[in-house]
Amino acid sequence: MALLLGVTACSYTLPPPRERSPDASADAQDAPALDLAPDSAAPDVVADNLAMELPAEVPPADAPPDTDVSVAADASHDADAMPLDTSTPVDMAMVPDTAIGVDSTVRDTVTPADTSTPMDTTRPPDTAATDTGRMDTNPYMDAAPDAASVVLFSEVSAGAFHTCGISRGRVYCWGRNDQGQVGDGTNTQRLRPVGVSLPDPATQIAAGGAHSCALTTRGNVYCWGDNGSGQLGLGHTEDSYRPMPVPLTDAVELGLGSQHSCVRTSSARVTCWGDNSRGAVGDGSGAMTVTSPTPLLTVAFVSALSVGDDHTCAVSLQGTCTTGAAAQLYCWGYNNLGQLGLSDFTIHPRPTAVARTGTPCAASYRVATGRVATLVMSEGTILATGRNDRQVFGSSLPIAASRFTTTVGLAVTRALALGIGASHACALTTGPAMAAALYCWGDNGGGQLGVVTPVSEGPPTALPFFASGSGRVPFRLAVGASHTCAIALSPTGTTEGELFCWGRGTYGQLGVGDSRDTVTPTRVGF
C-alpha cells in the first residue's frame, strides 16, 4: 500500500443509564463455525427483536442521555472455556497489518510508565467558563496552534459525540465533554480541538461512548473521561478529567465501546475491562463490571480488533501462510439483534468462533462493530449481520439477520478501512488502479454520508469531496455515532494530512467552531 495505510475505525453511542439485573445471565454455548460467504437462501429476519427503535436525531445539549430500550436477552453462563488450537504456532512476522489503529507493530520491549507522581485529577467547577483548555506545560501538549496554520493529523477516532486526533505526537480532542472525555481537565464543551497532556508522544487514539484512551510510543495506555463501569481500567469507578495511566505495558492496538475498552497486546492476545453486564469484556465471569484489564485466554494469535457498543470481535490467525490455515473470526458480548453473527440472539460472555475465511496473509480481511450491527470484508465482499437500522446494510432488506449472509452492495478490490456508527457506515476502498475512494451508506439525517442526496437513508455512495482529481486522497477513516471524519494526505507527506469532519455537530464533535450539522466535509480548525 504505497500511499495508503490500512486502517479501520469504529464508533460508539453515548452510554445510556442502564438497569442491571443481578440475576441476568449469559450463554456461552459456542455456535458452530459458519462460512463468511454470501448465501443464496433468504436471510434471517427477526421480527420479534425489532421493537427497539433507535433515535434518528441526536438529542439537544440540554436533553438527558438516551435511555436504554434494548431488547433483553435470556441466557446462561457456560463454565467451560472454549478450547484453543495452538498446535501450529503462528509466525507473527507474517501477521498482516489489519489493526484498527495505525501502529500495529509488535514491540519487543516496553518501558512502564512512571507513576511515582500521581496525575492531578481534581475536577474544576462546572462553570469554568474562563478555562482555556491548557494544562501544565508538557512537551507533548501545547496550546492550540496559530489559527492561521494548517495542522496536519496522522490519526483520528470518532466517539459518540466527541472526537480525538493526533498531530505530531500530540493528542487533541473536542466535542461533548460533560464527563471529561475531551481530557483537558475540564467538563466544558469544546467546539475546536484542545490539547491533552501526556508524558510521551502518542501513536494511537481511541474515542468511545464518553471516554477516550491513547497509546504512547513507550507502549503505555492512558485513559480519561467516564468511568462509571470501570472502562478506564483504573481499578475503580471514579471519572477522570485528565489522562490516567492504565496498568498495561504491552498494548499495540486500542478499541473502545460504549462503556468497555479492549486492547490487542504484543503477545497477540486481547485484554478487556469495563461494563460486563452484557458480556462485552469476554471473560465469562458474570461480573457486572470489570475495573482492571483482564486478559482473555480463550483466543490467541489475534491480528485485528474491533470494539462496538456492547460487543467485540477479533480476527485470530490459527496457522501460517505456508500451511494454508485460515483466519478465524471471534465475537462476544451483546447479541440481542444477531450482531455477533452466530445464528442466535443470546449473550455470549466468551469469545465464540463465528466464521473462517481466507488465509493469514489475506490483508483485505476487515471487521467493524457498531451499535446494533457488524460488518466484515472478505474476498472483495462486505457482509453484514445484526439490525438493518436505516439501511446500514446498504439497502432496505433484510430487516435483520443473525449471520453474515447479507451482502452490502459495494464491490471493492480491497477495503482499507470499515467503520460503522449508530445507523450509518463507511468504507475506504481501493480499486484496480489502487486509487482511494470513500463510500458511505445508511442514515443521512445529519449529513453523515457526506452527500446532499439521498436526504435520508441511502445505498453506498462515493463522496465527491474525495473523488479522483480532487487532490484529496483519504487514508484515515473514523465513524462516530452520527458523524464521520477522514484524513487526506498532505502534498508533502504520506503519514499525515488535513482532517475533515461532517455530519451531526450538536456538541461540537466536528471541531469546526460551531455546533451546526454539515453535509460537506469541513477542515478541522483551531
Mind sketching the topology for me?
Layout: E1 34-35, E2 155-158, E3 162-167, E4 170-175, E5 190-196, E6 202-207, E7 211-216, E8 221-225, E9 240-246, E10 251-256, E11 260-265, E12 270-275, E13 289-296, E14 302-307, E15 311-317, E16 327-333, E17 348-357, E18 366-369, E19 373-378, E20 381-387, E21 400-408, E22 414-420, E23 424-430, E24 436-442, E25 458-462, E26 474-479, E27 483-489, E28 497-503, E29 518-523
Silhouette:
globular
Output the strand order for the largest sheet: 1-17-16-15-14
Broad structural category: mainly beta
Task: Give helix % range.
Answer: under 10%
Helical region count?
A: 0
N-to-C span: 31 Å
Percentage beta strand: 25-35%
Rg, alpha carbons: 21 Å
Mean pLDDT equals 76
Q: Report the sheet with the most strands, covering strand number, pairing sense and barrel closure.
A: 5 strands, mixed
Instruction: Work out the number of β strands.
Output: 29
Given as residue ranges, the uncertain stretches (5+ residues, pLDDT < 50) are: 1-139, 359-363
- SSE order: EEEEEEEEEEEEEEEEEEEEEEEEEEEEE
Structure overview:
Helix content is 0%, strand content 35%. It is globular. It is built from no helices and 29 strands. It has a five-stranded mixed β-sheet, with no helix packed on it. A four-stranded antiparallel β-sheet has the order 2-3-4-5, with no helix packed on it. By secondary structure, it is mainly β.
Top keywords for this entry?
disordered N terminus; mainly beta; 526 residues; five-stranded mixed sheet; single chain; four-stranded antiparallel sheet
